[in-house]
Design brief:
The complex is a heterodimer. Chain A is 0% helix and 52% strand. In chain A, strands 2, 4, 5, 6, 9, 10 and 11 form a seven-stranded mixed sheet that branches. In chain A, strands 1-3-8-7 form a four-stranded antiparallel sheet, with no helix packed on it. By secondary structure, chain A is mostly beta strands. In chain B, a hairpin with a 2-residue loop joins strand 6 and strand 7. Chain B is built from no helices and eleven strands. In chain B, strands 2, 4, 5, 9, 10 and 11 form a six-stranded mixed sheet that branches. By secondary structure, chain B is mainly β. The termini of chain B are far apart. The chains are: A mainly beta, B mainly beta. Chains A and B meet through strand 5, strand 9 and strand 10 of A and strand 4, strand 5, strand 9 and strand 10 of B.
Chain lengths: 114, 111
């Protein structure tokens, strides 16, 4: 499976600021995904990021709050904008596997908003 | 009704026993089914995937799928304390690659 890295691994931010999370893959992938895992909860898909097109957002998530970039086939960023304490979560990127529909996850970014 | 349901547990089994983890899903058109293991503070790790009715075995793990009953399970044979983790069931409901996760079952394997 692909090797996925995320930066930063964790951060503590002030209310009203923004944080950009980076996801880097060691091989080219068509589809990348961004998930949120709130404390004690399961994973919720935020959006699907395909290279060369606008990200597709799930219900409850909007581009103004979570802008996403996908400049090439190995990299994506997720920005959490105008943060509030409710945005405190782990943010994970995932990538598609090699033909079996599976997804592999990066190590995650643990965000705390004060 | 939640789309993917799991018992939150904890499910406690003694070392060496078989752990049985269950998951039900609501969309009869679901195509692909996945089990992830998540250790505390870590990201989910893919254990198994299954597409067809029946059993699929990989080492100590067996995934079972019954599409008529909308039910998928994971059996862990010879459970080890290192298997203690939260197990997440995920369902892909169409060809969009979108995964819907259950809330996870916490497994505790007692030495």
């Amino acid at each position: 499976s692909a090797v996925i890295s995320q930066k930063p691994s964790r951060d503590i931010c002030q209310r009203g600021t923004s944080l950009t999370i980076q996801c880097q893959v060691d091989s080219q992938v068509t589809m990348m995904f961004w998930y949120r895992q709130q404390p004690g909860q399961s994973l919720t898909l935020i959006a699907t990021a395909n290279q060369g097109s606008e990200a597709t957002y799930e219900s409850g998530f909007v581009i103004d709050k979570f802008p996403i970039s996908r400049p090439n086939l190995t990299f994506s960023t997720l920005t959490v904008s105008n943060m509030s304490p409710e945005d405190s979560s782990i943010y994970l990127c995932s990538v598609e596997g090699q033909g079996n529909n599976e997804q592999f996850f990066g190590p995650g970014t643990r965000l705390t908003v004060l | 009704q939640k789309e993917v349901e799991q018992n939150s547990g904890p499910l406690s089994v003694p070392e060496g026993a078989i752990a049985s983890l269950n998951c039900t899903y609501s969309d009869r058109g679901s195509q692909s089914f996945f089990w992830y293991r998540q250790y505390s503070g870590k990201s989910p790790e893919l254990i198994m995937f299954i597409y067809s009715n029946g059993d699929k075995e990989d080492g100590r793990f067996t995934a079972q799928l019954n599409k008529a009953s909308q039910y998928v399970s994971l059996l862990i044979r010879d459970s080890q304390p290192s298997d203690s983790a939260t197990y997440l069931c995920a369902v892909m409901m169409d060809s969009s690659y979108k995964l819907i996760f259950g809330s996870g079952t916490r497994l505790l394997v007692r030495p």
